[in-house]
Amino acid sequence: MRITEIKSFLLSKPRDLHIVKIETDEGIYGIGEAGCSTREHGQDGVLRHLRAFLLGMDPMQVEHIWQVCYRSAYYEGGRVITGVMAAIDIALYDIIGKKLGVPVYQLLGGACRDKIFGFVTVGGLNDSHCQDRVRAAVDERWPAIRFSPADSIVPRALRVDPTLKDTTNVFDVRESMAATAELYTDIWQTTDKRVALGIDYHHRFSVAEAAQFCQMIPRGSLSFLEEPIRNENPEAYATLRTMTDVPFAIGEEWPSKWAALPYIERGLTNFARVDICCIGGLTEAKKVAGWCEAHYIDVMPHNPIGPVCTAATIHYAAAINNFNWVEMVPAFNEGASDVFPEMPKRQGTHYPLPVRPGLGVEFDEDAALKYPMTFYEHPHLQRPDGSYTNW
Asked: What DSSP letter does each residue of 310-354 carry, written as one string?
């Protein structure tokens, strides 16, 4: 079997997506998803380059193709490149699963569980409906609930002209810390203690701000604080680790096993937020999971993108023993049913084991062409003094 074509699709539904389709001379195709969100046009350029030497290769040689894609450039790695590699890698697993007539998780060592449970995000703590959403999530028996912080902003993505100023995108970190701590404490005090609670701060803190925020909430109340600071510098996390005992959820930005290394080896993360579509696909993600297992770290995959990423993540979660919960965003994970006429079907708080060969996702090219990508940026945030800060 040989690779005969590699196609790239930049979509705007169910959100900004970069879908890759790999075709073979046996009529079997595989689909993958690249995960460096808002940099899809850059990914498209990388894919055009890799396509030049991937055509004609054997799609069964997954590890070999991964190594060729990563090591063929003098300047190795980078999230845009590993995002594209992830899409290629996932598509190859899809092809092999279809060729052999088995779900992808069987290629990864078989299933470790019957159900893949998720956590649900109920929105910002200052949302007027937040309390109601928490009660509904508890009644639905979600095992974990995640919050966005209480912000004084109404963030708007930049879809047309990124140079336009948007005065609603102002983030006051101290105001957010105070409101988030107060509102979170009220919810925690009235919520079933069997339910894990987490907050995702999207690396908007400095080390000092993160440490103080952890001191402002009841000790033992927070199951995880996600991405409190940026992760380029492990030493900063090591410093923060000495200042609080709140568990950290870190890793959604890791582009490789090497980026994950210090966070695992030094115990800087308690929940590894591996993103299969960013880290280089199932091949690399499986290696990182094994490394985490050796250090008693659970994997809590990052999954806020599309149905292909969701399917790949479900297979990954099924095949590793140290899995905890997967992120679920139904509007994205299960959207665009015309583009993806077959995709994993969620049952309440979990996904059952897939049964279809490959990923279990089908892709309609004609439908995809109805939703071409337009320019999209995440909100550009500024602090009250006008300086730029992280989204």
From this structure: HHHHHHHHHH-TTB--EEE-HHHHT--TTT-SB----BTTEEEPP
Instruction: Give the tokens for residue 196.
Output: 């894990």
From residue 71, alpha-carbon distances to 63, 64, 315 in Å are 12, 10, 27
Question: For 228, phi and psi rounded to 5 degrees?
Answer: -65, -35
Expressed as residue numbers, the domain containing 23 is 3-105
Choose one of 84, 105, 126: the last residue of a domain.
105
The pLDDT averaged over each successive group of 10 residues in the chain (391 residues) is 98 93 98 93 96 98 97 88 98 98 98 97 92 96 96 58 60 94 97 97 96 97 97 96 97 96 97 97 98 98 94 98 94 89 95 97 96 86 89 83
Stretch (H or E) spanning 376: none
- Let me know: does 382 contact 169? Beta carbons within 8 Å: yes
pLDDT for res 11: 95
Buried b (16+ CB within 10 A) or exposed e, 65-80: bbeebbeeeeeebebb
Nearest to 279 by CA among 40, 94, 55, 66: 66
CB half-sphere exposure, 54, CA atoms < 13 A: 32
Q: Provide the pLDDT for residue 79.
A: 92
Q: Is residue 372 part of a domain?
A: no
Total domains in the chain come to: 2
- Whether residue 192 lies inside any domain: the answer is yes
Q: Is the pTM of this model over 0.90?
A: yes
Instruction: Say what the pLDDT of residue 330 is.
Output: 85
212 and 311, same structural domain?
Answer: yes
pLDDT of residue 159: 56
Instruction: For residues 158 and 244, give the distance between their C-alpha atoms in angstroms, rounded to a whole number.
Output: 36
What CA–CA distance (Å, rounded) separates 165 from 231?
28
Name 9's bridge partners: 19
Q: What is the pLDDT of residue 71?
A: 93
